[in-house]
């Protein structure tokens, strides 16, 4: 049995295994969660006893142990979701169920079990489904962990969604008034006038963008999905979207959304700022654009061309037209 003493003075966190098979707790020393409407309150003789009582109750997801009073309070899943609101009190201990070290099925399901990226979830068996998980890209304290959407199916899974966008004038796609919206807080022409977002999108039609500075913490492979243009996976070369660097990229079409121009190759060059947003294109910049993320409603338009001709060859009459960018290491 793995036991980590709760009298550690060099760290505020430890893990302890309860007697119930496979149940482990993460412990926050000198911390507790407000325990109104608890599942159960009672007297116990030790931290281990409190953990065992919680372990035996499926509804218990966390607990408070007050050493001086010898009391234990069992908390529900709803209360545990508020774990970022921990209070400080000497002699208190907050216990949160995290599963066993050999069982990663709970990883990413709470703030305290946040993972570095969606790709980390690929080590689980069976592979988790696509959905929202807690991630902590910069590591260290999980106090700044946040929720993000993970695509666990496309091209092996493990993709973290960093941007979901739509269009300002989809019906008149090649009009100057059409642009992507919103946009990430990347550096582009000062005339770009669509709204900026720094809120991680929680699904593919939650139109928001993760702070651009965090993208490189997730990796440098890029998955571009759209319901009006073909999907691409692009690996960096001398060029990189995440590093905001112009140059060659290695892209492949992973899903044909349209049968139009199925014989065309994927783009091979990335440019971060040819006007009012980044683009993926092939040689012959003026007429070979595949994706152009134009964010200005006063000029140009956001190319989504499966033919790579910088024309309006995208799918027409699509309900909720949108696009997404995902990142993976």
From TrEMBL:
<dbReference type="Pfam" id="PF00024">
    <property type="entry name" value="PAN_1"/>
</dbReference>
<dbReference type="Pfam" id="PF01410">
    <property type="entry name" value="COLFI"/>
</dbReference>
<protein>
    <recommendedName>
        <fullName>Fibrinogen C-terminal domain-containing protein</fullName>
    </recommendedName>
</protein>
<dbReference type="GO" id="GO:0070492">
    <property type="term" value="F:oligosaccharide binding"/>
</dbReference>
<feature type="domain" description="Fibrinogen C-terminal">
    <location>
        <begin position="109"/>
        <end position="162"/>
    </location>
</feature>
<dbReference type="GO" id="GO:0005201">
    <property type="term" value="F:extracellular matrix structural constituent"/>
</dbReference>
<keyword id="KW-0176">Collagen</keyword>
<keyword id="KW-1015">Disulfide bond</keyword>
<keyword id="KW-0964">Secreted</keyword>
<dbReference type="GO" id="GO:0005615">
    <property type="term" value="C:extracellular space"/>
</dbReference>
<dbReference type="InterPro" id="IPR002181">
    <property type="entry name" value="Fibrinogen_a/b/g_C_dom"/>
</dbReference>
<feature type="signal peptide">
    <location>
        <begin position="1"/>
        <end position="18"/>
    </location>
</feature>
<dbReference type="InterPro" id="IPR003609">
    <property type="entry name" value="Pan_app"/>
</dbReference>
<keyword id="KW-0732">Signal</keyword>
<dbReference type="InterPro" id="IPR036056">
    <property type="entry name" value="Fibrinogen-like_C"/>
</dbReference>
<dbReference type="InterPro" id="IPR000885">
    <property type="entry name" value="Fib_collagen_C"/>
</dbReference>
<dbReference type="GO" id="GO:0005581">
    <property type="term" value="C:collagen trimer"/>
</dbReference>
